[in-house]
Write a structure and sequence with these properties.
Chains A, B: Keywords: Cell membrane, Membrane, Transmembrane, Transmembrane helix. 2 copies of one chain form a homodimer. By secondary structure, chain A is mainly alpha-helical. The first copy, chain A, has a two-stranded antiparallel ribbon with strand order 1-2. The relative contact order of chain A is 0.16. Chains A and B meet through α4 and α5 of A and α1, α4 and α5 of B.
Chain lengths: ~200, ~200
């Protein structure tokens, strides 16, 4: 009898507490929202900087013995297109989750923390791989690769490379933010387990 | 009195047994261990396939009007070196966490799930970015980039490219495993919150 009584008693205490005081937001709430706004800002910055990375230089054309103006832009490389797609999705995700966090009722917080943690992990995978892909290609642009005869282009397209480099740095920051998010969500869920 | 005492006595013994029984492992435990062994296997496979990707072909040398044997190997590209480092760390992490999961006392499970989730997120970031970087470089090797005059090399070094491609595919699988891990850890922690 005692074993069945105890949970009932706890239940009644819990429901009384719930009726007496409305559930409060956890301490991490404001940090959560601030980080999500930062993710949105970082993603939008990375996308804008990458899209505006355009530079036209007069370079020797290999086919003719002439020099012609040639424009470097992000759409020249599939890796940069993937980068922009991924960071756009991350920016959208950042602003949507910020709004959801703000309008969220504190009573539903735990369940939403779970959903946020699961989605954050997915977004982290996408943003980290996009940053890696763009970084790998940008590094070849910066240093070239003498083994396969890929020439470096950053000595000619200096401004373009500065834009690309800055954009990748901001995306790296966004990836770190996503790691922090997920850790914070996991920790917030962990703290709700009674010790 | 004796007839009513007896059942009470039994009840109390039962509840004592329930209190004395050690905490059991969660249902997800075996899935956890299996996934971690898979991560180890996938990481080691990716590293071995990438390291053994060596091919020597006789190609025209740009400086002289001669043809010379030239070897393609993973260390020609910094992205592939980063890839191997990251996947080696992931393999080590996989085998270490498998061992820890097996020797772990069920009573400490929740705390270790938290630590695992936090570390899994970090590993996911590393493995996903390495896969992205290697994928970005391998794609240039496969298709070339006519905008900047980077020639494709996979028409000559076919076996090398097959190795690299397979290795990246296995690493992608390892990334997906890490996403699943983290989700499973988060969900296991969430389930321990009393409803």
């Amino acid at each position: 009898m005692a074993s069945t009584d105890k949970p009932d008693h706890r239940e009644s205490i819990k429901s009384e507490e719930a009726l007496a005081a409305p559930p409060r937001r956890s301490n991490y709430f404001s940090v959560h929202v601030a980080l999500r706004v930062l993710l949105f800002a970082a993603s939008v910055t990375a996308v804008v900087v990458m899209v505006t990375a355009k530079q036209t230089e007069i370079v020797p054309v290999p086919v003719f013995p002439f020099r012609a103006p040639l424009e470097a832009k992000f759409s020249d490389s599939p890796a940069f297109i993937y980068f922009i797609s991924a960071l756009s999705v991350a920016g959208l995700y950042g602003i949507l989750t910020t709004l959801v966090s703000i309008v969220l009722k504190p009573a539903h917080e735990t369940r939403f923390l779970l959903h946020f943690a699961l989605l954050d992990v997915l977004m982290l995978g996408i943003v980290a791989s996009a940053t890696g892909a763009a970084g790998g290609v940008a590094y070849i642009g910066l240093k070239g690769n003498s083994h396969v005869g890929w020439v470096k282009v950053c000595n000619v397209y200096d401004k373009f490379c500065q834009h690309v480099g800055s954009s990748i740095a901001v995306a790296l920051f966004a990836s770190v933010l996503l790691v922090l998010f997920t850790m914070l969500s996991v920790f917030s869920i962990y703290r709700k387990i009674p010790k």
